[in-house]
What does this fold into?
Amino acid sequence: MRIEQLEYLAAVTQYGSLRRASERLHVSQPALSEAVSKLERELGVTLLDRRRSGSRISRRGRELLQPMVEVLEAVERLRVAAGDQATGHHVVRVGTVSAATATLLVPAMHDFRSAHPGSTVEVVNSQQAGVNQGVSEGALDLGLVNVLAGDDPPVDLVSTGLVHGRPVVVLPADHPLTAYDEVTTDQLRAEPFVAMREGSLMHRFVHRLFGSRLPSVSYTTDGSELGKVMVAQGLGLTVLPDYSVAGDPMERAGLIAFRRLADDTSSVSLVLRKRRQQHVSRRVRDLETILLQHARAHAGHPERSPGTDRSGTDGPGGTSQSA
It folds into this structure.
């Protein structure tokens, strides 16, 4: 007997049918049905009434439901007790591709630390594949990755969209191209360029944007944070999601700016990823909730649009757009 078998049956009862339980748990209906069938064979009772109209918990299943719930509650108490009796220094590990760090992740970490002063958030910078793998294998509790519209999510992970925006050109605040509302692909191609390494979403996007006529790449870096520093130092221009730049300390300080791409309408999103499981530590659940709260606040209070100066009035050609 496995704990997830009891969780599956409890979910069928909670959501009213095998189909709805499979949708809520992000588990295929055949896999969920087979897990319950194995439990039925172990217990020697029929737990589900399987009909053409759908599968629902049986009378015998309802009779056994309370003991099953008690087992699940005992398991949860054990997990909480084990966490409380550990070293007293609890670590939640978050993998990230360094996107929306200033506008989302750092404020969420601040709130999490206030709620859990004895805990630490360990931020692991990696490319998207590394974040996905770390979450899938349990080395990371949560992951933050960028995705382009149309990208297929990993089937073994639960994905939740947090922030939505578009790729933009990042350039020094005193660069001549800041006089424009938008930067064309040809204008960008003519400038020194700071590229993201192969394996990152922005590397894939830039190759799609430029096609076979790539810019003369001057530098390559692993992540957006160093990329923004290199732009601020005048080494070149780069392309990042707008939510990685708007509200960044360097953007607020007037060291870097961002402008829309004139000939591209791609959308990009920051997505939270976690494992497909029902029971996680309270600290991980709390951090997830805090991230979602900050994401909703971000959506309700969009950042400055490209072309806005430090005082909040429109600069050259500035127009309103949410990040």
About this structure: The radius of gyration is 24 Å. The chain is about 40% helix and 25% strand. The chain has three domains: 3-84, 90-164+269-300, 166-266.
